[in-house]
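G., the chain you wanted modeled:
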Amino acid sequence: MLVQNLSLPNRPIKIAANTISRPSGTLLAAVVIGALVAFMAIWQIPSLLRDMQIRNAPVIVQDGDVQDGRCTARKGIFVDCEAHVSYNYKGQHYESDVNLFFVDFHTGDYDVDLVISGEKPQLATISIALDKFWNRVVLLAVFLLGFAAMVGAAILASIRVARARGQLAVPGRLSLVMVAVQATGRAWGRDQFSYQQPDAKTAHSTLFDKGTAPLLLRDEVGGQYGYAVKHEAVSIPVLLDRDLNRLELTTAERSQMLAEIETVEATQPPPPKPAAKRSPWRVLLTFLRNIVLLVVFVVLAVVGYWLYYALAATNAFNSPGMDINNMMPASMNAWACGKLQQRFGDERAPFGCVAEDFTSWK
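Predicted structure as tokens:
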């Protein structure tokens, strides 16, 4: 292999600083993700704060009017609902808009009641918003933390690359390393290569101008790799180009290394024959088998969580336990509600076991 036959000059060598590319689209991604964070916060935090106050003193308004109520399922499990509510309470008329976002496996329509705060009657929501309160809190937290983590990771990667590019400008001792080429593409009118050391967790990218190409060779078993150098002060490897122009070498040093590369290439084994393609039927059967296994896993997980909710949950208002129990056949739902009532019978009934008055057990 090249790493065993190619020798580097025994002296500090400077590497072209632009050989490590900054993560593409970092600024645009940060702006887009920041806008998503702001949208999610503005959209959901006020309604959660409102419903938190309503939960302290909920009052069902029997003659309230829920208008233009609509729930939309996205990606199968993400549900957003909106409605306009109007009601009279103690001689005063109130109107309000309700919107919420939660995870649910429910199919069909939702039956809801209009619920207001007994302490602040101007605060109104729908009953499903209270049933799904912690579901909504957790979902919003996951989205916001996930978006923030992506922005943070992109910024840290940019800082790391900028620091490495500055260090590459200082001559240092180099060592040869083998890297796996993960992907290729085009960026800014140039060829882009993503590569990674076999024992590393992070991939890096680099751009090659027109007329240049990375140094790629096959090993003894026909595997193709890229070859890179690591600066003594930089942890990020730099993918070499075939003409070695990324290294600051003398004419004699470059000629010697190019001759060594030519010698190694001449002794390379022929490329392996392409593997036989699997028949379409075999591909289809494998796909169907994986789908069946996935469905079985999901069913077992859902039933297992439902049993935990019915027999061992410490909170009757556990979501998604309430949601799963509500979807169960009538006999299984009744059994679970009976088990829950044995432990929480002195409390308000949870969603899935509640009667028409939105309070007592069915």
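The mean pLDDT is 84.

Shout if anything looks off.
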